[in-house]
């Protein structure tokens, strides 16, 4: 939540990117940090920008200032969604997506000891809009996450069904169609949709196992260009 989550909207004149990486903890200005903490004061900062072009110099200077480092101590990695690097870095967020959904549901993330996730890797898209659809579908309909947690089982049973993507009424359609219907505005999409297809909890204290959600291979097949 303090690093991999793409929670920083980086803006400039005719420039926009979603920012992730440890630079977020250095800036620490997103509201989520008021809850999770983990702010840092590093000597250098590293971040990832999801964008089709390099940021202009004034945007780089602003990022460095917000991180509290000299511009020469800032490293930014930039990749469009329609690239191998951009595709991998989005699809690799299955665990982070599950944790963010739990955070939004009010779950205490300090209960999570560790997690592991898998999701199908789409082909590199011809354009960013197609890439956004495919990478989201990989997680929403193919992502499977296992979280090792502490605490009681009753709370896991209570919250579990609300965690996977199938908790949303929008579930079941390719993300590209949902995105188009929303006017290409992420904030108009039901936030309950943004989660892996399957979320499993292993309670380290009781030994019990809880599994919620299901994959939808037909949607992935359609999204990835299957006949």
Characterise this structure.
- It is a single chain.
- The protein is an alpha/beta fold and 227 residues long.
- It has 2 domains: 8-79, Methenyltetrahydromethanopterin Cyclohydrolase, Chain A, domain 1 (Roll); 84-223, Methenyltetrahydromethanopterin Cyclohydrolase, Chain A, domain 2 (2-Layer Sandwich).
- The protein is built from 9 helices and 8 strands.
- The strands form 2 sheets. It has a 4-stranded mixed sheet. A 4-stranded mixed sheet has the order 5-6-7-8.
- Helix 4 (84-91) packs parallel to helix 6 (128-142) and helix 6 (128-142) packs antiparallel against helix 9.
- The protein is globular and about 50 Å long.
For this entry, give a set of tags:
four-stranded mixed β-sheet; 9 helices; Methenyltetrahydromethanopterin Cyclohydrolase, Chain A, domain 1; Methenyltetrahydromethanopterin Cyclohydrolase, Chain A, domain 2; alpha/beta; globular; 8 strands; 227 residues
Categorize the overall geometry. Answer: globular
**DSSP strand count:** 8
- The class by helix and strand makeup works out as alpha/beta
Assign a percent range to the helix content.
25-40%
Please identify the top-level CATH class of the largest domain.
Answer: Alpha Beta
Instruction: Kindly identify the CATH topology of the largest domain.
Output: Methenyltetrahydromethanopterin Cyclohydrolase, Chain A, domain 2
Q: How many H/I helical runs?
A: 9
List the uncertain runs.
none
**CATH architecture descriptor name of the largest domain:** 2-Layer Sandwich
User: pLDDT average, as an integer?
Assistant: 95
Query: What Rg, in angstroms, do the CA atoms define?
Result: 18 Å
Order of helices and strands: EEHHEHEHHEHEHHEEH
Physical arrangement of strands within the biggest beta sheet: 1-2-3-4
**Relative strand content:** 15-25%
CATH homologous superfamily (4th level) name of the largest domain: Methenyltetrahydromethanopterin Cyclohydrolase, Chain A, domain 2
Distance between the termini: 37 Å
Biggest sheet: strands, sense, closure?
A: 4 strands, mixed
